[in-house]
Specification:
The chain is an alpha/beta fold. 42% of the residues lie in helices and 16% in strands. Helix 4 packs across helix 9, helix 6 runs parallel beside helix 7 and helix 12 runs parallel beside helix 14. Bound molecules: pyridoxal-5'-phosphate (PLP).
């Protein structure tokens, strides 16, 4: 046996001891309000499937028809032979939906971030980044080689302080924030961040992964929520959350989008989104543009569930969106809570370090328009039962 890899075993064991080891459950059913998980039927409180698009009949049908017409794989990167008319149509329609000049798609939101940031700033430049930004933003920032200054979470005053201190020494600067923070469910004060970033002449980028299909008129996202059309230079989006498929999108200023076609490395060096994915996203856009019903249902479900959870005595942190963290503290408690919920037919994952800070472990419930009121009531019952058993409430 080699000894050069022994450290991995030690690390894995210490993750297990600390309650931080990822035990991955397997799904044996389509996504929806209920799932079959490891062979057991459970209420789904985990998916980012905000609008129920992951198994929506219209998206499924669109994907099937596109496969019949174009096959499955793009067979190339976008710049060689991987751009079908479906890809360009999705980009055009996405730009219309978001009310921006242009849009470009990527294979994932993660890739969209690591494409965009290094294309816009490099090692002589500076990035001001919210301290709780998503891992893909952090990696994109590192890849760029720019100096990274972290500002206090959702704090435009601290951002301004950092800009005053550092901005002058660098030719280009960028301010980057998540729109909705995926672990806490709070919303960045983008209106104030915009004012500050404009004052110090920085490029403004927002990652709207959890805002798309959720915030703004008919789910048009955080820029629409704050009426900041034309003011945010670049918006990152994902097609894997409310859109229920997989893929990434960058929307905003036409020059930036054009530049990404020339210099976005995951665009140039990784194959395009697949045909069924693109076709399903087009069908999802069509639904969003024709009706606000699902977005309204999502918010109605959110209000109901959160009010009842608060009444029951749970601490939901600072969430103002369908992302509902139930703050528990220690990782072991969160894991135990999740296990007990699963025994009670409720699938809600525990989240611990490094996804959230140490001692801020939680269960995260994701509300969806796919839930019926009776589903939410069933979930509440289980939370109260387990909460009492483990002396959380
Ligand atoms: C989920 C998420 C991503 C990654 O999106 P994928 O399309 O799943 O790669 C990026 N940024 C934020 C803020 C996210 O929440």
């Amino acid at each position: 046996m080699t000894t050069t890899l022994n450290w991995i075993e030690n690390e894995l064991n210490s993750l297990k001891d600390a309650g931080l080891y990822n035990r991955i459950r397997t799904i044996n059913s389509p996504q929806g309000a209920w799932l079959v998980v490891d062979g057991k039927r459970v209420l789904n409180f985990c998916s980012n499937n905000y609008l129920g698009f992951a198994n929506h009949p219209k998206l499924v049908q669109a994907a099937k028809e596109a496969i019949d017409q174009y096959g499955i794989g793009p067979a190339a990167v976008r710049t060689i032979a991987g751009t079908t008319s479906l890809h360009t149509e999705l980009e055009k329609k996405m730009a219309e939906f978001k009310g921006v000049e242009a849009a470009i798609t990527f294979q994932s939101g993660f890739n969209a971030n690591i494409a965009t940031i290094p294309a816009l700033v490099s090692k002589e430049d500076v990035i001001f980044s919210d301290e709780l930004n998503h891992a893909s933003i952090i990696d994109g920032c590192r890849l760029s080689g720019a100096t990274i200054i972290r500002y206090a979470h959702c704090d435009p005053q601290d951002l301004e302080k950092a800009l005053i201190e550092h901005r002058g020494r660098y030719p280009k600067a960028m301010v980057i924030s998540d729109g909705v923070f995926s672990m806490d469910g709070d919303i960045a004060p983008l209106d104030k961040i915009y004012e500050v970033s404009r004052k110090y002449q920085t490029i403004l980028m927002v990652d709207d992964a959890h805002g798309e299909g959720v915030l703004g008129r008919g789910g048009r996202g955080i820029v629409d929520h704050y009426h900041l059309h034309g003011k945010v230079d670049v918006e990152i989006g994902t097609l894997s959350k409310a859109f229920g498929v997989v893929g990434g999108v960058v929307a905003g200023n036409a020059l930036i989008v054009e530049w990404l076609r020339q210099r976005g490395r995951p665009f140039l060096f990784s194959s395009a989104m697949t045909i069924p994915d693109v076709a399903a996203c087009l069908a999802g856009l069509e639904i969003l543009q024709s009706s606000t019903e699902l977005v309204e249902k999502l918010w109605e479900n959110t209000r109901f569930f959160k009010e009842e959870m608060k009444k029951a005595g749970f601490d939901l942190g600072s969430s103002v969106t369908p992302i509902t963290p139930i703050m528990l503290g220690e990782a072991q408690l969160a894991q135990e809570f999740s296990k007990e919920l699963f025994e009670n037919q409720v699938f809600a994952m525990a989240i611990g370090f490094p996804t959230v800070p140490r001692r801020k472990a939680r269960i995260r419930v994701m509300i969806s328009a796919a839930h019926q009121k009776s589903d939410l009531e069933r979930g509440l019952e289980a939370f109260v039962k387990v909460g009492k058993k483990l002396a959380v409430i």
